[in-house]
Amino acid sequence: MHINQSHRFCIAPMMEWTDRHCRMFHRLLSRRARLYTEMVTAQAAIRGDREKLLGFNPAEHPVALQLGGSEPALLAEAARIGADFGYDEINLNVGCPSDRVQSGKFGACLMLEPELVADCVAAMRAKASVPVTVKCRIGVDDQDPQVALRTMIAQCKAAGATIFVVHARKALLQGLSPKDNRTVPPLDYDLVYAVKRENPELTIVLNGGVADLDTAEECLQHVDGVMLGRAAYQSPALLAEVDARLYGEAPREVDAAVEAFVEYVARKRQEGVPLNAMTRHILGVFHGRHGARQFRRYLSENATRHEAGVEVLREAIARVGAQALETETATA
Question: Which sequence positions are flagged as catalytic?
Answer without folding.
Answer: 96
